[in-house]
Design goal:
This protein has about 240 residues and is an alpha/beta fold. About 40% of the residues lie in helices and about 15% in strands. Bound molecules: zinc ion (2 copies).
């Protein structure tokens, strides 16, 4: 039966096709829910086994417990543990670039669903009470029209039934693009970049969501603010994480 809703959906498909995060072509109607071509799904560098016990980075063998980066930073991270969906390879670099800078916000739905598929059980086991996306500076969010971390968090929250708090942590001052700064400057800058946005809810165990994990300094800066606000444990999930070098 053709309903008004169906007509609307078809119209929406013609005007705003859902594009696959891997090949960027509109996905077939029957793949709309997943938001990714079933053939392209196989191309994703999913991290399934041999993860770093701390940051979740893919390790080349199952013999090591920690990646090189975490071995060098033992005891310095504020978060407890983290997981990432994919390794940040060329494919993910291009996909995340389109998601952030070319308006492909629908990618976040496909990725958020996959995060829920892979990590839904871990989230339940950890007893997560709130999902906190890494906030974007309001000016940058206004320019872009959305915060990709918040979009990932919304889908993850919807799929797992865990509440998302988008304004729990907010970005304070305008931070210059991180690329132009040294590691020390980066960390100093980040320390001042976040603060608690609301204090009407007390959260115990939370998970921070971000698109890319590089050194973990952003996650730690947000985690620090959360711990200072009384949160007991902070985990993180990121869409992609660098290789173990
Ligand atoms: Zn595709
Ligand atoms: Zn690690």
């Amino acid at each position: 039966m053709i309903s008004f809703r169906n007509i609307l959906e078809n119209f929406k498909d013609m005007v705003f096709p859902v594009r696959c995060p891997v090949c960027d072509r509109p996905v077939y109607y029957y793949e709309r829910k997943e938001g990714i071509c079933s053939s392209c799904r196989k191309e994703l560098p999913l991290i399934r086994h041999n993860r770093c016990y701390k940051c979740g980075r893919a390790l080349d063998t199952g013999e090591k417990e920690l990646c090189r980066d975490c071995r060098n930073k033992t005891g310095t991270h504020i978060y407890v543990r983290g997981l990432s969906l994919c390794t940040y390879n060329d494919l993910m670099r291009a996909s995340i670039y389109r998601m952030k800078y070319q308006g492909r916000k629908e990618y976040a739905k496909a990725y958020g669903r996959m995060m829920a598929e892979q990590f839904g059980n871990a989230i339940k086991r950890a007893g997560i009470e709130g999902i906190i996306p890494v906030p974007l500076h309001p000016k940058r969010e206004y320019e872009r029209g959305y915060n990709q971390a918040a979009l990932l968090a919304r889908t993850l929250g919807k799929e797992t039934g865990v509440k998302v708090y988008e304004d729990y942590v907010i970005r304070t001052c305008h931070t210059p693009p991180m690329k132009s700064l040294s590691t020390g400057e980066r960390q100093n800058n980040l320390k001042k970049a976040f603060k608690i946005g609301r204090n009407d809810v007390k959260l115990g165990i939370t998970i921070i969501i971000d698109d890319i994990y590089t050194t973990g300094s952003t996650i730690d800066a947000v985690a620090k603010v959360l711990i200072e606000a009384g949160v007991s444990r902070v985990y993180f999930i990121s869409l992609a994480i660098g290789e173990d070098l």
